[in-house]
Amino acid sequence: ATMMQTTTTTTSEDGKRMQQLRKTFAKAVDKSLKEVSKKELARFFEKRLVRHYGDVLVEYGRQTMEVVRQNVMAEFEVILAEVDIKDRLNVLDELEQQQPLLANG
Fold it and tell me: Left if phi > 0, otherwise alpha if psi is -120 to 50, otherwise beta: which for 5?
């Protein structure tokens, strides 16, 4: 089993800052919820248990992390909507486009 990577769902309404926020958050989630190997499991479980049920434990861990990942991403979307982040970041994108470049760049 391979670790699933978090995919970001962007819409045509997402400006560059919102796209970057989604991408960065998804990367952080992926790093935080990495898959556990049999070797790593051996540190937490009795060796006999890992030897006999290691594959099952790894698969169960993968499935659990996928559920956690989905829940985290769903909660992220709820928080974004509650505080209206997308519109606020899109306003910043628009202001940046309208602002003439300053002498210092």
Answer: beta
User: Is the Cβ–Cβ distance between 50 and 42 less than 8 Å?
Assistant: yes
Chain centroid to CA 16: how far? 18
Confidence of residue 36 (pLDDT cuts 50, 70, 90): confident
47 CB contacts (<8 Å, ≥6 apart)?
none
Q: pTM surpassing 0.85?
A: no
Amino acid at 3: M
Identify the burial level of 75 via C-beta atoms within 10 angstroms of its C-beta, where 0-12 means exposed, 13-18 middle and 19 or more buried. Answer: exposed
Other Cβ atoms closer than 10 A to 69: 19
What number of CA atoms fall less than 13 Å from residue 88's CA on the CB side? 7
